[in-house]
Design a protein that fits this description.
The chain is built from two helices and three strands; from the N terminus they run αββαβ. The chain has helices spanning 8-23, 51-68, and strands spanning 28-34, 39-44, 76-81.
């Protein structure tokens, strides 16, 4: 996969490691490696992490990826925190 012709097994393992690194942080509900591993989308539990702490958590995840994983180019880390409220008028 990709222009660098890396082995499929190595590619899949790198994506799993990327998701596992982000998933190891407290307050992370789910992590998805997208765009061939060039972007990491992290779903944050809004009940545990505030808006202010989301920025810090995103920075910590990016630093952990830099430290623990070797990859070509750069990886964008996006932290998504949302609260939904639904009411019905009858």
């Amino acid at each position: 996969p990709g222009a660098r012709k890396e082995n499929l097994a190595v590619f899949i393992e790198r994506l799993k490691r990327l998701e596992a690194i982000a998933g190891g942080f407290e307050g992370v509900r789910r992590a998805y490696a997208v765009k061939a591993g060039k972007e990491l989308r992290v779903i944050i539990d809004a009940g545990q992490i505030s808006d202010q702490k989301t920025h810090g958590l995103c920075k910590k995840i990016a630093r952990a990826v830099e430290r623990d994983l070797s990859y070509p180019g750069q990886i964008k880390v996006s932290a998504i925190r949302e609260t939904r409220a639904v009411r019905f008028a009858v």
